[in-house]
């Protein structure tokens, strides 16, 4: 073997060693990447699994809360049905729209933003333990407020209302019957009966 051939073999072997080393490096890098991908996949899976369990827990909690809410609604519904006289008291006949607001300022959001408001208590004799309601032009004659017992005045029930400036007509309801309170001014209405009225200055 001549010197030239010997140098070629030596260079070739060195090149093969370098290639073998590079192949091992590439294999190691590939194994590392493969391992990292596996770990990342497992990590993402675990994170998703934890998130899913949290969502399931929240869903069960909301279902229980919904059951409690439905039970409360059922209990309130049954209580309302068993209260004597309340059904009749809430069957309120509306006045015709053309008659509403002729002599009063209606209490609504638009007016309440423009007109000064004043708090006033409207009360009546308690009439025992029976439920008493207040209805008036400031409620558009469409709903009624329940009157509460007044502290320090055992024979009275009333409601604290916030009314705009102007004239307001109202009545009280007990056992489904409308009536006026003698302590307030009275006026005839379009149905031939009487309403109480007050003026807020």
Q: What does this entry look like structurally?
A:
With 201 residues, the chain is α+β, with helices and mostly antiparallel strands. The chain has two domains: 85 residues; 111 residues, Immunoglobulins (Immunoglobulin-like, Sandwich), CATH 2.60.40. It is built from three helices and nine strands. The strands form two sheets. Strands 2, 3, 6, 7, 8 and 9 form a six-stranded antiparallel beta sheet that branches. It is rod-shaped. It starts with a helix and ends with a strand.
Strand content: 25-35%
Task: For the record, give the distance between the C-alpha atoms at the N and C termini, rounded to a whole number.
Answer: 127 Å
Secondary-structure class: alpha+beta
| Secondary structure tally, helices | 3
Task: Let me know the largest β-sheet.
Answer: 6 strands, antiparallel
- Share of residues in helices: 40-55%
Low-confidence stretches: 83-107
Please name the CATH architecture of the largest domain. Answer: Sandwich
Total strands: 9
* Average predicted local confidence, pLDDT: 75
In total, the number of domains comes to 2
CATH superfamily of the largest domain: Immunoglobulins
CATH topology of the largest domain: Immunoglobulin-like
Order of helices and strands: HHHEEEEEEEEE
Radius of gyration: 42 Å
Coiled coil: 38-79
Protein name: AMP-activated protein kinase glycogen-binding domain-containing protein
Pfam families: AMPK1_CBM (PF16561)
Keywords: Coiled coil
């Amino acid at each position: 073997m001549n010197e030239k051939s010997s140098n070629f073999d030596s260079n070739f072997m060195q090149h093969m060693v370098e290639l073998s080393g590079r192949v091992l490096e590439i294999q190691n890098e590939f194994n590392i990447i493969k391992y990292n991908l596996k770990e990342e996949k497992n990590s993402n899976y675990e994170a998703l699994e934890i998130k899913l369990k949290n969502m399931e827990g929240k869903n069960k909690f909301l279902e229980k809360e919904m059951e409690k809410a439905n039970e409360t609604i059922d209990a309130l519904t049954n209580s309302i049905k068993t209260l004597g006289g309340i059904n009749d008291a809430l069957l309120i006949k509306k006045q015709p729209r053309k008659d509403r607001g002729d002599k009063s300022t209606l209490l609504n959001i638009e007016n309440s933003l423009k007109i000064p408001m004043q708090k006033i208590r409207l009360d009546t004799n308690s009439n025992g333990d029976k439920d008493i309601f207040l209805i008036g032009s400031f409620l558009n004659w469409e709903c009624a407020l329940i009157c509460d017992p007044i502290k320090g005045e055992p024979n009275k029930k009333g409601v604290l209302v916030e009314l705009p400036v102007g004239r307001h007509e109202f009545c009280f309801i007990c056992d489904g019957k409308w009536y006026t309170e003698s302590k307030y001014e009275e006026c005839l209405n379009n149905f031939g009966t009487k309403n109480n009225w007050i003026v807020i200055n």
